[in-house]
Amino acid sequence: MPRVMNVESHVANLRKFWRQERRLPGYGEMLELFGYQSKHAVFRALRKLEELGFLERKKGRAVATGKLTGTLRLLGAVQAGFPSPAEEELADTMSLDELLIRRPEATFMLTVQGDSMIAAGIIPGDMVLVEKGGTPKPNDIVVAQVDDEWTLKYYMKDREGVRLDPANSKYKSIRPKRSLVIGGIVKAVIRKYA
Amino acid sequence: MSEFPFTLHSYPCAIIHFDGDAFFTSVEQSIHPYLKGQPVVTGKERGIIACASYEAKALGISRGLSLYEAIRMCPKLKVLPSDYETYSLYSKRMFDIARRYTPMVEEYSIDEGFADLTGLRRVHHASYEEIALRIQAEIQAELDITVSVGLSLTKSLAKLGSKYRKPRGFTAIPGTDIEGFLKQIPLEKVWGFGPNTVALLTKHGLRTVHDFAIRPEGWADRLMGKIGRELWGELRGTSLYPVTTEAKSSYCSISKCKTFTAPSTDPEFIWAKLVRNVESAFIKARRYRLRARQVSVMLRRQDYRQEGLEIRLSRAVSVTRDAMPAVREMFDQLIEQGAAYRATMVVLGKLEPDKEQQFDLFEDPVQIEKRQALSAAVDAVNEQYGKHTLSFAPSLFLNQGRQTARDEQPQRKSALIPGETRRQRLRIPRLFLKV
What we know:
The complex is a heterodimer of chains A (about 190) and B (about 425).
Chain A: H1 7-21, H2 27-34, H3 39-51, E1 55-58, E2 61-64, H4 66-69, H5 85-90, H6 96-100, E3 107-111, E4 127-131, E5 141-146, E6 149-158, E7 161-165, E8 180-190
Antiparallel strand pairs in A: 1-2, 3-4, 4-8, 5-6, 5-8, 6-7
Chain B: E1 15-20, H1 23-31, E2 40-42, E3 51-52, H2 54-57, H3 67-73, E4 78-80, H4 84-99, E5 105-109, E6 112-116, H5 121-124, H6 128-143, E7 147-152, H7 155-164, E8 170-172, H8 178-182, H9 195-203, H10 209-213, H11 217-235, E9 254-264, H12 267-287, E10 290-301, E11 306-317, H13 320-334, E12 341-353, H14 365-385, H15 411-414, E13 430-431
Parallel strand pairs in B: 2-4, 7-8
Antiparallel strand pairs in B: 1-6, 1-7, 2-3, 5-6, 9-12, 10-11, 10-12
Helix pairs in contact in B: 4-6, 12-13
């Protein structure tokens, strides 16, 4: 059975070596690094890595490229002038963090313990992302301190002023009598299943 | 005496210094909002107050006081374990908010920084005072902590400004107001004037910072050398210390100090603590590819007296084991049988890049290389399984001391979110509220 060259593990090994030593290994060291018996096998591996753009040959010596050392952060690895089509498409995607968090400096996480927002789909144990520093609009879910008591409620406004509504028929709406402090606005709910 | 005005312009340069007000406890009050307005201190895990909230300070409680003493003074004091992970997250966010206005932000320490605003008025359609106030307001609105801000022409003046009114203060010192401002400031407030310098200057009849700034330049130079000359310029509004943006990448020295929860008289335990500090210090040195030519060891007694020794190594080392004989020698000289100690400290000095290596005539390079290989293997194991998984044998004695109790761990580490581990937690501050 022909042996298939595991380029991925070679690259990983070379990167690890580079991180520790800041240089490329010599042929002898590569024997051990790649798990080969003969230097010819190393030579073939190097040629392959050169083809793939991880290495370059300068004055007969192998030199690591940015693709291997990761110093250059390009869009894809530029091969023959064109970025890889997949990477180009992915440039317009975002991470889950970016989707859920609009203002990273002002966002905090809170684990919910009570059931006052159960009908809004927030159950005990859920994590909510709370943004501080904004002004709430009606129907926003807020973390608020009403007359010294902290609570999670819908923020509502009517002719009488601010009203905080629960999403659970067990509880009543509350109106601040002495004070109302908005601790933050809920921007997302996260529930993780084991 | 020089009769010339310091400068005729209000802001040839504009530098702000922002300084978190009682930073650690403010962060605790931000993540535990029900603690606002209450006397709060941090430092439960080591029995000494690391930071006291303004409410606690008003009761006479200050940093460095023992917890026992503080609770006697104020039985209602809220005592919390330090949660450096959350403090660091807040710190990073504070600097990120400043970076919305200028890329020139210097992270001077966990709770204070400088920002250079020179030339940014047009971009933000605002005066320097307005930009400084916006940064201060955004930090307060989004992080729910307060900072005090000083705005002036140089780092030294901006720092005097941020200390002038606290908490939540803002002090602007334009060039034309420098002289009037400095007349109110006593010498010891200046960043760089230690007790000895102040004593020296007082002997020459100086009282305020203004007295210092109106002396001729040569006078400051003769008395205090280069530092004196530079501070003299800075205090007169000539910016000599630039705002440096790069993160710390080079270290002049690396130090590790750990206080034990209960002071100990057991030499084996104290030695184990010291060895752990030495290991941590060398791990850090290796991470930054440095090696140390000098090692010092300090032991702090229960009554805070401390004794230390310093050894110059024959060769700069990065492998922990290579420094151990010297450390042991110093330890044996320092330790007094039966005395109680509360902390050990190690400092690696004279650091240099860990590159080519020159061997001593009487050393055995083969042995040294073997030890290096062993050290690399230990690092690899610890990288995979967690710091100090594989460590020196004295660490067996570490557990004989009192273990950190669960209530001495910050909530962040004791109440993990599903998926978080002892080693890794979510990079976002958590609010602790019962809702």
